[in-house]
Structures are given as structure tokens and as C-alpha cells.
């Protein structure tokens, strides 16, 4: 069963640069969350879930993904995302979105 969640924006910061990132098309499914992130000219279709070894995120349109810590662990997730995404802006945006999801969405697997 899919449940649609309201779109939201979050503020992202890297060094002295600050920008807004929009998250839309958010669907909570039985064992994953599907959403689209718009940040600084980039559109990233994203899938977030939890497996037996913890949280994960994948970006099918660019054939990349990685394991994650808990959603609120911004710095650990940023480090992992920097290894798979093209640039620090995209990685910072996704890490910020994950932290915002932890704070404002009641995801079923958050500890």
C-alpha cells in the first residue's frame, strides 16, 4: 500500500553556500520510501529503505546507491553519499533531506 506524503523544502549549507532543496513525489510504501530531490539544477529520483543490514538509498537513474546510518546521522550519511554522487552539493542536499525526513516524517524503521 502506497501513502502519499506532502512535499517539503529544506535549507542546505556547505561552507559559506546556502540553498533550498525541494523534495516532492514522496510515496511511503510497505518497505521503502520513493521521492524526488531537486537541488541546484539536479533532479535525483531516490529510493530509501531498510534491509537486514540497515538503511540504504539508491538512485536508479544514475545507477548508484549506498548504505546509510540512521537518518539523523548527517555527517556519516554525507560521507557515504560523497563517495557515490557526482558532487558535494548533491551529497549535502540528500544528507540534509534524510535528516529532515527523520525529524518531520514518521518513517517506520527509524530507531
Automatic annotation (TrEMBL):
Protein name: Uncharacterized protein
Species assigned in the record: Faecalitalea cylindroides
Stored Pfam families: DUF6618
Amino acid at each position: 500500500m502506497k501513502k502519499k506524503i506532502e512535499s517539503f523544502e529544506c535549507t542546505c549549507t556547505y561552507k559559506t553556500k546556502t540553498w533550498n532543496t525541494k523534495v516532492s513525489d514522496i510515496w511511503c510504501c510497505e518497505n521503502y520510501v520513493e521521492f524526488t530531490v531537486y537541488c541546484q539544477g539536479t533532479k535525483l529520483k531516490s529510493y530509501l529503505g531498510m534491509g537486514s543490514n540497515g538503511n540504504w538509498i539508491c538512485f536508479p537513474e544514475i545507477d548508484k546507491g549506498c548504505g546509510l546510518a540512521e537518518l539523523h546521522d548527517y555527517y556519516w550519511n554525507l560521507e557515504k553519499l560523497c563517495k557515490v554522487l557526482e558532487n558535494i552539493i548533491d551529497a549535502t542536499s540528500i544528507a540534509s533531506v534524510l535528516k529532515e525526513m527523520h525529524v518531520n516524517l514518521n518513517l517506520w524503521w527509524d530507531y
